[in-house]
Amino acid sequence: MSMLELRNVSKVYGGGTTEVDAISDIDLAVDRGSLVAIMGPSGSGKSTLLTIAGTLEQPTTGDVMINGSNVVGMSRNDKARLRRRTIGYVFQDFNLLAGLTAVENVSLPLELDGISMRKARAQGMSALEELGLVDRAESYPDQLSGGERQRVAIARAVVGERSLLLADEPSGALDSVNGEAVMRMILSACHGGVAALVVTHDAKLASWADRVVFLRDGKAVDETLPPQQPEDLLSNDTSSPSES
Amino acid sequence: MSVRHSLLALLSEGQKYGFQLRQEFEASTGEVWPLNVGQVYTTLQRLERDGLAESDDADADERQRNYRITEAGEQELSRWLRTPPDLSQPPRDELVIKVLVASRLPDVDVYDVIQVHRRYVVQLMQQWTHLKEDEANFDLAFALAVDAELFRLDAVVRWLDAADGRLHRAAFESTEDATVAPPRIARRIGAHR
To answer: Per the domain annotation, does B88 fall within a domain?
Structure first.
């Protein structure tokens, strides 16, 4: 059973002459332990797909299965609980709360879920420790560098028992070395059993994924083939298979 | 990749044998560019002929000879490091030509052609990225060489994305103009050859 499964999902905004198909007939499955990237230009429906996968928006048609449960038709409270316990988000602009320290930002979702402050803080510290940020735990977001803020955002997304990580352009405006560090952290979460879905227009980020799905005008038009043995690259034969 | 200057760089660190140069060349390029030992000895002969490297015993078997850089070799190495490669002329890029050709053929879906190439390049990037995934085997020279390849391929994907967007916009604004604009670019590229 996949951690996330979109079945024939479509989303239409507006109506009549102003009707816009944001995404159409999307079928997509993300298993535990795997990292899937969605690539596409601006306006291709990437962010809509992610917000539907994260239960923040309802599809017009189709089913969204998270850990075997169909979230379409689920009550608002049930969806909110699912988001707190199961789904972690990483946004391009980090979305940290400015008035909370790093560890408070990370432990907040646990506290909202009813876990005691002491236990939530301990889990928050543990998540920060994994990302090498323990010494920054008491810093406020404006005291952190861009790379550190994004690491805090990732810690917040994977804290507790979350098993689905959704990321929208997760390296934001970070330089390529920090962007790579972000993808390494997401990949590390996947190796720990998390299912991750990343949307990006950046091929360097997408190339960390096990599978890349290409979106165009709201439709999944293509995807990469299963990875080949990397050693093939060092055999000096990197010619295009379509060479004439 | 200049094997000649890379060997000079290795010799600038001190005297070395041919087999040693091969090992160090491969290590310093993260083993991304394999080098056969015959190439090393041929290059060393040429460096010696040009006065850029020398060895003590010219009559000995090449495997027994210990090479060192000359003063002229040091100067040549310094000059080479500071000379930018010629990037002024656009290379004859087969991928660019294929997309340009596809854009003017009425029965060919140029977006489909672009996607075939985009997928292939992203798959190559996945393979390169996978190579540096394992930080336990992290090697700085290797990471730099892999990054160079990833940035090169990324530029190809960006160009494909830009071409895709530009063709869509041209088709939206005028379906007739969309097939007229690209050949002008093709002529300009061809004019350099």
So the answer is: no
User: What pTM, to 2 d.p., does this model score?
Assistant: 0.79
Write out the two tokens for A146: 């861009």
ipTM: 0.84
Domain extent, residue A66, equals: 4-12+21-86+163-226
Q: Cα angle at B111 between B106 and B117, to 5 degrees?
A: 120
Put the strands of the sheet holding A69-70 in their side by side order.
A20-30, A4-13, A61-66, A69-70
Q: Which CATH number does the domain housing residue B52 bear?
A: 1.10.10.10
Average pLDDT, chain A: 88
Of B81, B105, B133, which one is at a domain's C-terminal end?
B81
For residue A224, the chain B residues in CB contact (below 8 A) are 119, 122-123, 126
pLDDT bucket at A104, cuts 50 / 70 / 90: very high
By the 8 A CB rule, do A203 and B154 touch? yes
C-beta atoms of B122 and A39 within 8 A: yes
Q: Say whether both B50 and B109 belong to one domain.
A: no
Q: Are residues B102 and B156 in the same domain?
A: yes
> Which is higher by pLDDT, B134 or A82?
A82
Beta strands in A67-208 (DSSP E): 69-70, 87-90, 164-168, 195-200
Q: Which domain holds residue B58?
A: 3-81
Among B108, B120, B126, B138, pick the best mutation site for testing chain A contact (most A Cβ within 10 A). B126
